[in-house]
Specification:
There is one protein chain. With about 325 residues, the chain is α+β, with helices and mostly antiparallel strands. It is about 25% helix and about 45% strand. The longest helix is centred in the first third of the chain and has 25 residues. The N and C termini lie far apart (about 80 Å). The relative contact order is 0.09.
């Protein structure tokens, strides 16, 4: 118990960490095999059985903006058939340097650059894979219950899937969001990704190049903001999702605002040139749901506006112009 001795040891730890960080900056990227295995193990457990994760190397580096980072190069996810269903050339994990002084590892930010993902939508399930992937439902928390019918009555604007999607999103991220806040997580980003989506029920496969996603979390207010942009039938469309919490009542609102989405993005058959009916009509809309503290729905609204576009139909490909009103 000498307090001066304890203070001396503390300063030794601080100085060692400081000079270690300085040497790291001067030396450049340093291979870190333990981190590579650790990252692969965490991702593998999160994906569940049937997937294997390989990382070519993991290095510790210093970024002028992000600070201390662990960078995983060439991360590959393979399904049970050994087919690559996700490839990420570069994944960067920004580490809280101050937390390291207390021998804790806190990831503040995650950034994926030029990733390629292959997803399968099968009924209510969405998973990494392709037409040949054998998918086993992972054990864990049950899927969120569907939106109560009464919450969407006369409020969905004729597009009930919008409110249902928001409801499932909110119920799904609730536990993970609080966990992320408790662990000091601040943001997640996907830069110039390519997403391939196979819809088993519809028998359609779509590809979304140039996909960008930015998610930020405010640990003080528990608010979340996400911006999303990708390529669709009418060009590039965007969406913004906000989740705001009322500190007094404990209730929260999840809202989505999107633009330049087209009807063909919602009903892909309308974008198929082989069909007798095609539609190139942009949509602008907003949907929101207010949740009580216990998670029940207090209010839900949705509104969609049509922009100017064209409808093409028949074997002679006749065209009808739709003016914006």
């Amino acid at each position: 118990g000498n307090p001066y001795s304890e203070l001396w040891y503390t300063w030794i730890v601080v100085l060692v960490a400081f000079f270690g960080a300085m040497l790291l900056v001067m030396a450049g990227p340093t291979d870190f095999g333990i981190a590579r295995d650790r990252i692969a193990g965490i991702i593998g457990r999160g994906l569940g059985p049937g997937y294997t994760v390989d990382i070519r190397r993991a290095v510790i580096d210093f970024d002028p903006v992000l600070g201390l980072v662990v960078r995983a190069d060439d991360l590959d996810v393979r399904d049970s058939g050994k087919t690559v269903v996700a490839h990420v050339p570069s994944t960067r994990f920004a580490i809280d340097a101050y937390a390291l002084l207390t021998f804790r590892v806190e990831v503040k930010q995650v950034e994926l650059t030029n990733p390629e993902f292959s997803f399968v939508r099968d009924g209510g399930a969405l998973y990494l894979g392709n037409a040949n992937t054998e998918h086993a439902t992972p054990s864990g928390p049950a899927a969120p219950a569907p939106l109560p019918d009464a919450a969407g009555d006369s409020a969905d604007g004729g597009f009930p899937d919008l409110l249902a999607g928001l409801y499932i999103l909110d119920r799904g991220i609730e536990p993970q969001l609080q966990m992320a806040i408790d662990r000091g997580f601040e943001s997640f980003a996907v830069v110039s990704g390519t997403v391939t989506l196979l819809d088993r029920e519809a028998g359609q496969e779509r590809r979304f190049p140039g996909t960008d996603l930015n998610v930020t979390v405010d640990k003080t207010t528990s608010a979340l903001t996400a911006t999303f942009a990708t390529s669709g039938y009418g060009g590039r469309w965007t969406a913004q999702i906000d989740r705001e919490v009322d500190a007094n009542s404990g209730s929260h609102v999840l809202s989505a605002l999107f633009s330049q989405l087209t009807i063909a993005d919602i009903f892909p058959s309308l974008g198929d040139d082989d069909h007798l009916l095609n539609a190139d009509i942009p949509l602008y809309g907003r949907a929101s749901i207010r949740f009580a503290k216990d998670g029940s729905v207090e209010d839900a609204t949705a509104r969609l506006d049509l922009g100017a576009g064209t409808i093409t139909f028949g074997e002679d490909r006749e065209t009808v112009l739709l003016d914006e009103r």
